[in-house]
Design brief:
The protein is α/β, with parallel strands linked by helices and about 60 residues long. Helix content is about 20%, strand content about 25%. Helix 1 (about 15-30) links the parallel strand 1 (about 5-10) and strand 2. The longest helix has 13 residues, at about 15-30.
Length: about 60
């Protein structure tokens, strides 16, 4: 399946145990383009095709935008 044909799935918590397992399973299927969301993307570039910063701080609603 070509990269452009795959649907994009964003995984919050991709550096944790559960989120990391989800990322690996989605990548292994080859059916999805995976976007990993993490507080420190520079430290985790190898996680997925795309690694973006996302700090979901409930005390700071702006962090979720």
């Amino acid at each position: 399946m070509l990269s452009n044909d795959r649907k994009l799935i964003a995984v919050i918590g991709a550096t944790g145990q559960q989120g990391g397992a989800v990322v690996r399973a989605l990548q292994a299927s080859g059916q999805f383009k995976v976007r990993a969301l993490t507080r420190n993307p520079g430290k985790h570039r190898e996680l997925a095709e795309e690694v973006l910063e996302a700090d979901l701080d409930p005390g700071n609603p702006q962090s979720c935008i």
